[in-house]
């Protein structure tokens, strides 16, 4: 099924990264700046992230002896230092996820770079090192984002959906490892309801959502793929879902041959097997097009 399977460390069948995006209330301030403070229920739902869910997830990871990756908007890093300390104490990675969850592809390039650099600085201050990886808020990776990743020396991106295994992004100046995921692996699609974001979907039972994630895992295990969740503590860290998550991790462990890893370690592995010639990656050159395709007339503005 996979034409150029990557050799995983120690002959593992697949790599698993249970990544969480701890957006907390950044997304409410971004969407409803003036009214955010008056939306108390939504605020409480979002603050469940740092107050309840992340501590629970850090405990769960410790129980299973695995280290994982958390993406935090830098504003959340500054706002919730005790939660950041818990994540770091657990040996987990903190990745770049914008400053206030702003959408890069809706900004001017200089605005995107301003928030990008401001976030790097906040991560450096809180963790003692710059971020190794980036996930664009709401997948809003812009035509300029790769240039900034290359310029600032980040090792990987985890925003795109272009393959089932790692691949490389090349802008002509440098390369970044892409660690892709896809919508089925995002818990919003299965569990999110929030009137203040205009997001009203039927909620699945934890077991039904888990069926999707487990079947994705079974395929990754069978064919040598990469399984990356794009989850949110306030959704997957809720009691019944966290219990189902514990069962899923136990299932993966029982199956054997699974490499549980932080994304920075997966990116480092990819760079190693590419450098020593033991694997030839697929390469995407970005941007895909220099502008709108010429086959259609440009609209007069
Ligand atoms: Zn996010």
How would you portray this structure in words?
The protein has 301 residues and is of the alpha/beta class. It has one domain: TIM Barrel, CATH 3.20.20. It has helices at residues 26-31, 40-64, 74-79, 81-89, 109-127, 145-151, 188-191, 206-223, 233-236, 239-255, 263-275; strands at 14-21, 69-72, 93-96, 133-134, 156-157, 167-170, 175-178, 193-194, 199-200, 226-231, 258-260, 283-285. The protein is globular and about 50 Å long. The N and C termini lie far apart (46 Å). The model has no long low-confidence stretch (mean pLDDT 97). Residues 21, 23, 97, 101, 137 line the site of zinc ion.
Question: What characteristics describe this protein?
Answer:
five-stranded mixed beta sheet; alpha/beta; PgdA-like; binds zinc ion; Chitooligosaccharide deacetylase; 43% helix; hydrolase activity, acting on carbon-nitrogen (but not peptide) bonds; NODB_dom; 301 residues; 11 helices; TIM Barrel; Glyco_hydro/deAcase_b/a-brl
Question: In a few lines, what is going on in this structure?
Answer:
InterPro entries: Glyco_hydro/deAcase_b/a-brl, NODB_dom, PgdA-like. With 301 residues, the protein is of the alpha/beta class. It has eleven helices and twelve strands.
Say what oligomer this is: single chain
Low-confidence stretches: none
Topology, number of strands: 12
Instruction: Report the span from N to C terminus.
Output: 46 Å
CATH class: Alpha Beta
Number of continuous helical runs: 11
The chain-level structural class is alpha/beta
Cα Rg? 19 Å
Helix/strand order: EHHEHHEHEHEEEHEEHEHHEHE
Bound molecules: zinc ion
- Let me know the CATH homologous superfamily: Glycoside hydrolase/deacetylase
CATH architectural category:
Alpha-Beta Barrel
> Per CATH, what is the topology?
TIM Barrel
Q: In one word, what is the shape?
A: globular
Domain NodB homology: 39-261
GO molecular function: hydrolase activity, acting on carbon-nitrogen (but not peptide) bonds
Protein name: Chitooligosaccharide deacetylase
Family: Belongs to the polysaccharide deacetylase family.
């Amino acid at each position: 099924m996979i034409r150029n399977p990557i050799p995983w460390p120690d002959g593992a069948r697949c790599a698993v990264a249970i990544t969480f995006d701890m957006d907390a209330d950044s997304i409410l301030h971004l969407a409803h700046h003036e009214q955010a403070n008056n939306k108390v229920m939504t605020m409480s739902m979002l603050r469940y992230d740092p107050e309840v869910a992340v501590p629970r997830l850090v405990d769960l990871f410790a129980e299973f002896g695995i280290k994982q990756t958390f993406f935090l908007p830098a504003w959340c890093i500054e706002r919730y230092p005790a939660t950041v300390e818990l994540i770091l104490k657990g040996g987990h990675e903190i990745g770049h996820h914008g400053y206030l969850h702003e959408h890069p592809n809706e900004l001017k390039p200089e605005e995107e770079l301003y928030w990008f650099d401001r976030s790097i600085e906040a991560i450096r201050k809180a963790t003692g090192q710059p971020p190794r990886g980036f996930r664009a808020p709401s997948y809003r990776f812009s035509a300029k984002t790769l240039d900034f990743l290359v310029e600032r020396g980040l090792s990987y991106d985890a925003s795109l959906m272009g393959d089932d295994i790692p691949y490389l992004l090349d802008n002509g100046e440098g390369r970044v490892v892409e660690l892709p995921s896809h919508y089925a692996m995002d818990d919003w699609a299965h569990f999110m309801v929030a009137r203040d974001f205009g997001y009203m979907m039927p909620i699945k039972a934890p077991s039904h959502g888990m069926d999707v994630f487990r079947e994705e895992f079974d395929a990754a295990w069978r064919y040598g793929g990469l399984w990356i969740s794009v989850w949110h503590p306030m959704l997957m860290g809720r009691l019944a879902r966290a219990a189902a998550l514990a069962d899923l991790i136990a299932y993966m462990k029982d199956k054997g041959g699974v490499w549980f890893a932080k994304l920075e370690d997966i990116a480092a592995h990819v760079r190693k097997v590419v450098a020593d010639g033991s694997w030839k990656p697929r390469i995407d050159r970005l941007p895909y097009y220099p502008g709108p395709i010429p086959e259609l007339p440009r609209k007069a503005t």
